[in-house]
């Protein structure tokens, strides 16, 4: 199903250099602030719903990321194509973080790395293609 590409889009491995540390949030504080429920609000500065940067025929309606204290995560994306209604897709697994990298490892799949910046209530994730996802606490 082509909509599954939208789910893979948010879990693409990141290999870009890490962003500069946020002056508003030291590294240790940023890591401890990551757990919680996050809602994707923008992709490359464009508000949702937005056309998937990886698959032009897919529209991402909404997306959320739950990072649990114990290291579990759930990524949920509702996406559709012009010929299919919006469908929720979920991915579950484990997450870890260091000062600049958020790593997710799905239950069935390989680890994915995102460089991140956490400033106040906004979380920015950058994938290997330079696509930037902006999330806010939900």
Description:
This protein has 138 residues and is mainly beta. The chain has one domain (4-137): Beta Barrel (Lipocalin). The protein is built from 2 helices and 10 strands; from the N terminus they run H-H-E-E-E-E-E-E-E-E-E-E. It has helices spanning 4-9, 27-33; strands at residues 36-43, 46-47, 50-51, 58-67, 72-81, 84-97, 101-106, 112-119, 122-126, 132-137. Strands 1-4-5-6-7-8-9-10 form an 8-stranded antiparallel beta barrel. The radius of gyration is 14 Å and the shape is globular. The termini are far apart. The model is unreliable at 1-9 and 11-24 (pLDDT under 50).
Give the helix/strand layout:
Layout: H1 4-9, H2 27-33, E1 36-43, E2 46-47, E3 50-51, E4 58-67, E5 72-81, E6 84-97, E7 101-106, E8 112-119, E9 122-126, E10 132-137
Antiparallel strand pairs: 1-2, 1-4, 1-10, 3-4, 4-5, 5-6, 6-7, 7-8, 8-9, 9-10
Q: How many structural units, i.e. domains?
A: 1
The number of helical segments is 2
CATH architecture: Beta Barrel
Strand content is over 45%
Low-pLDDT windows of residues: 1-9, 11-24
| Largest beta-sheet details | 8 strands, antiparallel, barrel
User: Structural class of the helix and strand makeup?
Assistant: mainly beta
Helix content: under 10%
Based on Cα principal axes, name the global outline. globular
* CATH topology group: Lipocalin
**CATH level-four homologous superfamily name:** NlpE, N-terminal domain
Q: Kindly state the mean pLDDT as a whole number?
A: 84
- What strand line-up does the widest sheet have? 1-4-5-6-7-8-9-10
Gap between N and C termini, in Å?
Answer: 29 Å
Instruction: Name the CATH class.
Output: Mainly Beta
Q: What's the total count of β strands?
A: 10
H/E element order:
HHEEEEEEEEEE
Please state the CA-atom Rg, rounded to the nearest Å.
Answer: 14 Å
